[in-house]
Specification:
disordered C terminus, symport, cell membrane
Length: 563
């Protein structure tokens, strides 16, 4: 059933497709360009993004190139439950920042990054830990998306991998550089509309070209018992549970979500996040069904590479017109995430690095804009260079994921509990990272007492995750009850068992360690309790502050009224 090679366009066709896509997005941004762009609009659109634009941008940002390949791989590997495990938990990453996002926005309504809030709460060291994790994550995300573009171009055309990487990088930078986040949001909306329209056509077309429901049902006999089981233990422990653990880590640690949280009009936060959750889940689960269909029909991935699965299915079963639509679909998805990464990186450098640390709270907005655009250029070059080397990014993703998991409790606790200290924050994150590495890379044997010790920490981590999720939606009391119940259940079922699933064990260990250290050090501290009301005054809009200063310095001296 497999062809020896995939369908290929001519070089001219691929170049014209890319010119049409990136040229169109650039023309869209011309309508919103300002002669004198301001820093706050460049970073968060002056906190005025509406519901439709916000929900579309959130959805498009999270449907990135990896979603296509990973969703199909999940369906192909784990069977009927695979697409659900990938799409559902990915959607929950968006949903579960909502209750905490309301608190973040209430404390710092004029913030541009979560790091600014943490800086106002703790100071530079805690803020820079958060900023560093976001910088690493966004650069790696850029690399992944440019790599996907290079692979797509090399597979479907005579052009080289490096040519595809360069064209995608330059194209994204071209339309994002001037207007920053505003350009990202506007093009995200158009890209999502196109993505949904094409997905609605492509997914059913492949499905029915392969035989439709009849062939799917008949092919279920080709599945193993685990793949045919909707509640497969293998799928839950190797994919579902690790993804579930990552939900809060990505929601709290990723600046692309935080940036949209601070950009959306405050009255529209709830519908924006709910709509994005549903949109992401529906599209990605649908993509995963292509992998399930390939599994039921006994299709073998070309050259043994799972990333070839979706291009292979589209190429084998659809005519060239649909393949061209698929090409635009993938380019649009990776571009919508790449431009969000550029916007996130520029905001972090502008606000967290320059605004709060170099300029010491008194930045020049015009200089901030220059720094933001320079950051985009440098980040694009780094993304292109790293992607061109085809580096193995899995190890780096492991570290970033662990860092995000290690900061979840300290960040959330810092915004609700007035006893958390800067020392407790930084120490807990560092210790959690060390413990994660020991478990993930098995630097100590996960047997006997040491294995039991890590399972204990992981059980605490499991309780923390469940407790935080319940706390976010149902309040403190129910959150504590849920955390204790989950921890007890983990202790009963995970002992002498969880050590066999290293990725899950290490991720939970990061949560449990950071929570334990942060709570103990905060309770032991005699530092004066923090006043949350001071955060709003410490985090403001940069351009408004500049205008106020200019008004003060330029106003003429007024005569004193007579007594």
């Amino acid at each position: 059933m497999n062809n020896e090679s995939l369908y290929q366009f001519s070089t001219l066709t691929v170049v014209l497709l890319l010119l049409a896509f990136y040229g169109g997005t650039y023309l869209m941004t011309l309508g919103i360009r300002k002669k004198n762009e301001d820093a706050d609009a460049f970073m968060v659109s002056n906190h005025r993004v509406g519901f439709g634009m916000g929900a579309a941008s959130m959805t498009a940002t999270w449907i990135w190139a990896a979603s296509f390949y990973a969703a199909a791989t999940s369906g192909y590997t784990y069977g009927v439950s695979g697409p659900i495990h990938y799409g559902l938990w990915g959607a929950l990453m968006i949903l579960f920042i909502y209750p905490f996002g309301r608190r973040f926005r209430k404390l710092a309504p004029n913030a541009h990054t979560l790091g600014e809030l943490i800086h106002a709460r703790h100071g530079s060291s805690s803020q820079l830990i958060l900023a560093l994790s976001n910088l690493l994550g966004s650069v790696i995300s850029l690399m992944v998306n440019f790599t996907a573009a290079g692979a797509l171009v090399s597979v479907l055309s005579p052009l080289s991998f490096q040519a595809g990487v360069i064209m995608a990088g330059v194209g994204v930078l071209f339309y994002t550089l001037w207007s920053g986040f505003r350009a990202s949001v506007l093009t995200d909306f158009a890209q999502l509309v196109a993505l949904m329209a094409i997905a609605i056509v492509i997914i059913p077309a492949v499905f029915f070209a392969m035989g439709g429901p009849t062939e799917l049902v008949a092919g279920l006999d080709n599945l193993t018992p685990e793949q045919a089981n909707f509640f497969s233990t293998d799928a839950i422990l190797n994919q579902g549970a690790p993804f579930f653990v990552a939900v809060l880590a990505y929601a709290i640690g990723n600046q692309t979500i935080s940036q949209r949280l601070f950009a959306v009009n405050e009255d529209h936060i709830k519908p924006t996040f709910l709509t994005a959750t549903l949109g992401y889940g529906a599209i990605v689960i649908g993509l995963g069904m292509i992998g399930l269909m390939a599994l039921t029909l006994g299709v073998e991935p070309l050259n043994g590479d799972m990333n070839n699965l979706i291009p292979q299915m589209v190429s084998e079963y659809l005519p060239p017109f649909f393949i061209a639509l698929f090409f635009i679909l993938v380019i649009g998805s990776l571009s919508s995430t790449a431009d969000s990464d550029l916007s996130a990186l520029s905001a972090i450098i502008m606000a967290d690095v320059y605004g709060k640390n170099i300029a010491r709270g008194k930045p020049d907005p015009k200089r901030m804009l220059f720094i933001g655009r320079l950051t985009m250029i440098i980040a694009t070059v780094l993304g292109i260079v790293f992607a061109s080397f085809s580096l193995d990014i899995l190890v780096m993703l492991v570290f970033v994921g662990a860092l995000w998991g290690a900061i979840v409790f300290p960040v959330i606790a810092s915004c609700f509990w007035n006893r958390v200290t800067n020392t407790a924050f930084t120490t807990s994150v560092i210790v959690a990272m060390v413990m994660f590495c020991l478990a993930r890379f098995e630097l100590v044997p996960l047997t006997g007492m040491s294995g039991l010790f890590f399972e204990l920490l992981a059980s605490i981590g499991g309780g923390v995750i469940i407790g935080l999720m319940v706390f976010g939606f149902l309040g403190r009391i129910l959150g504590i009850i849920a955390a204790v119940a989950a921890m007890i259940a983990m202790l009963i079922f995970a002992t002498d068992f969880l050590r066999d699933y290293t990725v899950l064990l290490a991720s939970l260990t990061a949560y449990g360690t950071s929570t334990l250290v942060c709570v103990v050090m905060s309770l032991a501290s005699r530092q004066e309790r923090f006043d949350f009301d001071t955060i709003t005054a410490r985090v403001g809009n940069y351009d408004e502050a500049l205008d106020a200063d200019d008004h003060k310095t330029s106003a003429p001296n007024q005569p004193q009224p007579a007594a």
